[in-house]
Design goal:
single chain; alpha/beta; Spermidine Synthase, Chain: A, domain 2; Rossmann fold; 2 domains; 7-stranded mixed β-sheet; 26% helix
Length: 276
């Protein structure tokens, strides 16, 4: 078999993976969904021809979007994930003993079902008794919520299609209202190389709402450009004033040293954020 899946990461950049098998393909009410088995990265979840996660490199992303805010907060108990139907963020959050409840809100039920079936190492905790799964629009779900969550994680697809409303001021204002007085928001913030304007817009919008705001970086090999950004908005706690001495569970990427280093931005990203 000589089949290749190609993602157009920009008008001038493509990523191609050699495919061993196409395991599942469906058009859901919201998007085109595929599960393919690749030679390099194992099984991959693809939505609207964009790679969302792969078995081989998913831990880079899921550990950074979860453990940075959960170690910044001293006592995270109630966590909301908007998006993240593959279950990787849920798996990582449940490693923290303080967590009492994780609410996962994803608009597409079929993503959740296929992840459980085809990506069990990623979706392995979606049936955990601490996890509540709600299949609805996260934008509508969060409206009217008041001071309930300790941490909100926006684990969304790119800002197109059903996810576009997760990248605007009204939504971020609603996350602020839904968080407790010491709550923390973390948002995946795209590639600083390919999606520069999106990265900057997310950071600046959140910075205008949250008193403590930082951009931090991680590496995700299959994502556009490899270098990936996250924005942390906090009502109270400052991650730069937080020290992680002992993780207490197994990770593949995240370490106490990376927790500290991920907030040290390269000059080109600093210049992006400081520009008008």
């Amino acid at each position: 078999m000589n089949i290749w899946f190609t993602e157009n990461q920009s008008d001038s950049l493509r990523l191609s993976l050699k495919v061993k098998n196409i395991l599942y393909s469906s058009k859901t009410p919201y998007q085109n969904l595929m599960i393919v088995e690749t030679e390099q990265y194992g099984k991959a979840l693809i939505l609207d021809n964009i790679i969302q996660t792969t078995e081989y490199d998913e831990f880079f992303y899921h550990e950074m979007i979860t453990h940075v805010p959960l170690f910044t907060h001293p006592d995270p108990k109630k966590i909301l994930i908007i998006g993240g139907g593959d279950g990787g963020a849920v798996r990582e959050i449940l490693k923290h003993d303080t967590v009492e409840k994780v609410t996962l809100v994803d608009i597409d039920e079929e993503v959740i079902k296929t992840s459980k079936l085809f990506l069990p190492t990623i979706g392995c905790c979606l049936n955990d008794p601490k996890v509540e799964v709600i299949c609805t629009d996260g934008i509508e779900f969060i409206k009217g919520k008041k001071k309930y969550y300790d941490i909100i994680i926006v684990d969304s697809t790119d800002p197109v299609g059903p996810a576009i409303g997760l990248f605007n001021k009204e939504f971020y204002n609603n996350t602020y209202d839904a968080l407790k007085d010491d709550g923390i928001l973390t948002v995946q913030s795209e590639s600083p190389i390919i999606n520069t304007n999106v990265t900057v817009d997310i950071y600046k919008t959140i910075k205008n709402i949250y008193p403590v705001t930082y951009l931090y970086t991680g590496i995700v090999p299959t994502y556009q450009g490899g270098l990936w950004c996250f924005t942390l908005g906090s009502k109270h706690y400052d991650p730069l004033q937080t020290t992680v001495n002992n993780i207490g569970f197994i990770t593949k990427y995240f370490t106490p040293e990376i927790f500290k280093a991920c907030f040290s931005l390269p000059s080109f990203i600093k210049n992006m954020l400081e520009g008008d």
